[in-house]
């Protein structure tokens, strides 16, 4: 039931024409993972590899994400991985406000269907879009947060985007620390 709802939603996302990004993208990238996953990861937007394959986080950032999960004993196939935008912005440029707004319906529906216990927010862009409560990313990072009433008991775990870990060793170390903490929580379910 939940599986068929998420499959139906994937098809709607693949046919989405709510903003012009679909014109330049090879494939939409709805995301992937079990429809009843306990944990959902949100990145920013598909990059080149993701647009070519239709799969989330399969490029360099994705390889680091997979490594961070696996070195802490979490199988990537057990979690739901997606991004805020479902089509790649040309040349990986920053998403525009109208594109973010147009895509909001999709990530909200995904959360509504999957109902994860933890939503992992990867980086500034996902943080500003989902958390959006005047909180500071650096002060919220590495913590399990409960947000406003809209989200009920759902917990949010905020950390850097893996691409930051590819650019700076310091951020990679912080990501490692955060993923150790996150994995402990995931294993406690
Ligand atoms: N970065 C993201 O935020 N999402 C992807 O799917 C790939 C890279």
- Return Rg in Å: 15 Å
Query: Shape, please?
Result: globular
Tally of contiguous helical segments: 9
N-to-C SSE string, H for helix and E for strand: HHEHHEHEHHEEHH
Question: In the CATH hierarchy, what is the class?
Answer: Alpha Beta
Bound molecules: uracil
| Strand portion | 5-15%
CATH topology: Uracil-DNA Glycosylase, subunit E
Ends: how far apart?
22 Å
Secondary structure class reads alpha/beta
- Major sheet: order of its strands? 2-1-3-5-4
Helix content percent band: 40-55%
CATH architectural label: 3-Layer(aba) Sandwich
What name goes with the CATH superfamily? Uracil-DNA glycosylase-like domain
Total E-strand runs:
5
Indicate the mean pLDDT: 96
Q: Main β-sheet, in a few words?
A: 5 strands, mixed
Low-confidence runs (pLDDT<50, min 5 residues)?
A: none
In the residues, how many domains can be counted?
1
How would you describe what is shown here?
By secondary structure, this protein is of the alpha/beta class. It has a single domain, classed as Uracil-DNA glycosylase-like domain (Uracil-DNA Glycosylase, subunit E). Helices cover 48% and strands 12% of the residues. The protein is built from 9 helices and 5 strands. It has helices at residues 2-14, 21-24, 48-53, 60-70, 97-114, 123-131, 137-140, 162-167, 169-187; strands at residues 39-43, 80-83, 118-122, 144-146, 155-159. Strands 2-1-3-5-4 form a 5-stranded mixed β-sheet, with helices on both faces. Strand 4 and strand 5 form a beta hairpin. Helix 1 runs antiparallel to helix 5. It starts with a helix and ends with a helix. The mean pLDDT is 96. The chain binds uracil.
């Amino acid at each position: 039931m939940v599986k068929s709802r998420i499959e139906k939603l994937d098809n709607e996302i693949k046919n989405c024409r709510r903003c012009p990004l679909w014109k330049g993208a090879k494939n939409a990238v709805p995301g992937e993972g079990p429809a009843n996953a306990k944990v959902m990861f949100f990145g920013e937007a598909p990059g080149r590899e993701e647009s070519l394959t239709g799969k989330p986080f399969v490029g360099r950032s994705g390889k680091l994400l997979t490594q961070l999960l696996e070195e802490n004993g979490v199988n990537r196939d057990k979690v739901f991985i997606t991004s805020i935008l479902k089509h790649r912005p040309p040349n990986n440029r920053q998403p525009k406000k109208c594109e973010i707004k147009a895509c909001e319906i999709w990530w909200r529906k995904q959360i509504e269907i999957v109902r994860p216990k933890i939503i992992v927010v990867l980086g500034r862009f996902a943080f500003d879009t989902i958390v959006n409560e005047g909180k500071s990313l650096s002060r919220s990072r590495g913590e399990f947060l409960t947000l406003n009433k809209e989200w009920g008991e759902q917990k949010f775990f905020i950390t850097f985007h893996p691409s930051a870990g590819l650019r700076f060793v310091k951020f990679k170390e912080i990501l490692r620390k955060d993923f150790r903490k996150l994995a402990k929580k995931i294993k406690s379910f």
